[in-house]
């Protein structure tokens, strides 16, 4: 925000105009909170989804300079050997071999965002940027369309709120009538090794069975298996229930059906 304010509202008009033409690097960015536990929870996944949405929003409002070009993230911070669960020393998850690490939800959101397309499609109807629930739609040429929906509860860092939102997704005028649907989700039950660890009783050390359970729980996964739709009206409809601080992505990819 500081960089944007300096560029858009600089006292000298010539400087302001020049700064609007210069690309900038948004770095060391994160939620404003004194606690560190949001690094473990799914909160950061929803927060990152909104940050990317905000970058597109600023690009549409203020010009090409503000459109996101690349996201470079320190993945070493998002795979975990220890969870900092509240104050004090983190809980070891090194397990039996001393080397195993697990992907946090904040790692999986990077993989999810990597499925977005190169071009953002016009604003969706039924929600405005800044709402707790919002969507971002992109595409790759005429071959695939990506629909990202997120629910960010700004102050629910520990993701304890039971609040959820029923959302109906409707995408019309797709550039294809037959397509494969792939889904990805980060919430309490999906792509969330921290929740899986809590469900085990927050163990301080892991046996082989617990290691295997967490190993299966840290990957980016979807609601369901991929499936194919043949739509005479070239549209996609889906109803989802978005938990507080959750992210869902649906990737629609052109597919040629054979008899």
Structure description:
Residues 1-8 and 84-97 have low confidence and may be disordered. Strand 6 and strand 7 (144-151) form a beta hairpin. The strands form 4 sheets. The chain has a 6-stranded antiparallel β-sheet, with helices on one face. Strands 1-4 form a two-stranded antiparallel ribbon. It is 24% helix and 25% strand. The protein has helices at residues 2-8, 13-20, 43-62, 105-113, 193-199, 208-217, and strands at 79-80, 82-83, 91-92, 102-103, 119-120, 133-140, 144-151, 164-171, 178-186, 227-230, 236-243, 246-254.
- What pattern of helices and strands is seen along the backbone? HHHEEEEHEEEEEHHEEE
Rounded to the nearest angstrom, the radius of gyration is 20 Å
In terms of per-residue confidence, which ranges show pLDDT below 50 for 5 or more consecutive residues? Answer: 1-8, 84-97
Percentage of residues in helical conformation:
10-25%
User: What is the number of strand segments?
Assistant: 12
- What distance lies between the first and last C-alpha atoms, to the nearest angstrom? 55 Å
Main sheet makeup: 6 strands, antiparallel
Structural class: alpha+beta
* Strand composition percent: 15-25%
Give the spatial strand order of the biggest sheet. Answer: 5-6-7-12-9-10
Q: If you average the pLDDT, what whole number results? A: 79
Please count the helical segments.
6
Rough outline: globular
């Amino acid at each position: 925000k500081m960089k944007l304010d300096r560029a858009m509202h600089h006292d000298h008009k010539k400087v302001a105009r020049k700064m609007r033409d210069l690309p900038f690097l948004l770095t060391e960015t994160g939620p404003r909170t004194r606690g560190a536990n949001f690094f473990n929870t799914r909160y950061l996944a929803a927060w990152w989804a909104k940050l990317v949405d905000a970058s597109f929003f600023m690009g549409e409002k203020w010009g090409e300079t503000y459109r996101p070009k690349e996201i470079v993230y320190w993945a070493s911070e998002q795979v975990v050997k220890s969870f900092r669960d509240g104050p004090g020393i983190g809980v070891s998850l090194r397990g039996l071999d001393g080397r195993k690490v697990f992907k946090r939800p904040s790692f999986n959101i990077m993989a999810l965002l990597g499925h977005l397309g190169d071009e953002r499609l016009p604003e969706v109807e039924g929600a405005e940027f800044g709402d707790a629930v919002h969507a971002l739609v992109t595409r790759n040429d005429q071959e695939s369309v990506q629909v990202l929906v997120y629910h960010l509860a700004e102050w629910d860092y520990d993701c304890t709120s039971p609040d959820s939102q029923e959302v109906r997704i409707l995408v019309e005028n797709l550039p294809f009538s037959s397509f494969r649907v792939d889904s990805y989700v980060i919430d309490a039950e999906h792509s969330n090794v921290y929740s899986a660890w809590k469900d085990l009783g927050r163990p301080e050390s892991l046996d082989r069975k617990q290691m295997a359970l967490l190993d299966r729980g840290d990957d980016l996964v979807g609601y369901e298996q991929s499936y194919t739709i043949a739509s005479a009206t070239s549209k996609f409809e889906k109803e989802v229930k978005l938990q507080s601080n959750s992210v869902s992505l649906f990737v629609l990819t052109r597919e040629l059906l054979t008899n």
